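FORM 7B: Structural annotation worksheet

SECTION A. Query
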Amino acid sequence: MLTEVKNNLKIMFLSLKYNLIRVMENRVSFLTSVSMMIFNNASFIIQWLTIFGLVKYIGSYTLNDVMLFWAISSGSYGLTNILFNGANKIPEYIENGKLDAYLVMPKNVLCHVITSSTEPSAWGDLIYGYIALIIFNFSIKNIFLYSLLIIIGALIYASFIIICNSFTFYFIRFSETSEILKDIFINGSLYPDVIFNRAIKIIFFTLIPCALASWIPVHLIIEFNIYHFIILILATIVLIIIAFCLFYRGLKNYTSSNLMEARS
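SECTION B. Predicted structure
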């Protein structure tokens, strides 16, 4: 069991290394996309500076607290698309029969699929997250805790993507619905929980668990609570298990197209 986990982690690391080498072949394009993403995200700082120039608090949150939501969300989103961007391609692989190439591989199919590509601009999201944290909430403790929490957030978001996209095994063109759900997840994680009503909060803690990836991590940085941290870890494990189970159950319904193309 442990040996299999170790081998799969090794495969994922090698895939990440290969993807990074591939995107770095054109360094100008890579650095441009990263820089543009940082500037795009930074534009929202002006929005919040304007808002907090008019009001002192949003609920109980200060400007520094609100920027934590953006830092956590950007960091988690960036890390997800750096490490697990292949999860976004699951519908394409299913609908076009491209899973065939992964089914013949000796290791875990899902691990191969989710690490099959990376998004260069996602490095801009990750870097921006650290920039926002350093500007508005800098401390050595916060940097360490933030780094841990965006890893957890990335696992939650990646699991949610896998869960949504796995429904493509059962429903034709479900990818459009999946994109909407992913957009709701991202937008919900960017804004303070106080602006949402009770019903929306329940949805964001359960069906679309952006609260687990953003709201709880923000509160843990503001005031760390070991019990909330343990609950977050357990919830993350549950989501990962659901993602794996749903993908492999759906895989039984997959119809091969006999398209044995090599990975590019």
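SECTION C. Observations
Residues 2-251 form one domain. The chain is about 75% helix and 0% strand.

SECTION D. Sign-off
Analyst initials: ____
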